[in-house]
């Protein structure tokens, strides 16, 4: 995975637009891989589903809390991606009070499939979802890779450890001190 380019896809996002009247002032906005990744050093983390317990209790809120510490390590943005549509991803970010981490809806699973990270979660009635992983992506190239152990379809457990923000920060700091 290291040094691979993240796949070129178009994400169908929903953005607020105050010029739209009525109770639901949102419109579709297509954003591409280039929009999110070109010319930036980012952390991307991918998880099995919005609103699921580990993702909602630890992973997303911890990335939000540690956002400024990532900035101090030279990270421009933190992106949370999941095989969920834009309505679900926006509702989850709102419910979690997320202001700094940006959510990316991969509703069709195209990005996740092309990353080689799509797994079946039919045992939970989820269909195809993302295996849990994270990456430091520099101008579209994978610079660091953090994949949870046991990649498999219909996994009974959903490991969470190496892709935690704490572990990624530790790696970024260790890398910086080695370079110094
Ligand atoms: C979670 O706790 O994050 C989780 C639960 C069920 C399926 C996938 C993830």
Automatic annotation (TrEMBL):
Keyword terms of this UniProt record: Antioxidant, Oxidoreductase, Peroxidase, Redox-active center
Active site: 55
Catalytic activity field: a hydroperoxide + 2 glutathione = an alcohol + glutathione disulfide + H2O
UniProt entry tagged with the keyword Oxidoreductase: yes
Enzyme class: oxidoreductase
Domain (Thioredoxin) ranges: 1-151
GO annotation, biological process: cell redox homeostasis; cellular response to oxidative stress; hydrogen peroxide catabolic process
Enzyme Commission number(s): 1.11.1.27
GO molecular function, one term: thioredoxin peroxidase activity
Gene Ontology CC terms: cytoplasm
Oxidoreductase found in the keyword field: yes
Sequence similarity: Belongs to the peroxiredoxin family. Prx5 subfamily.
Function in brief: Thiol-specific peroxidase that catalyzes the reduction of hydrogen peroxide and organic hydroperoxides to water and alcohols, respectively. Plays a role in cell protection against oxidative stress by detoxifying peroxides.
Protein name: Glutathione-dependent peroxiredoxin
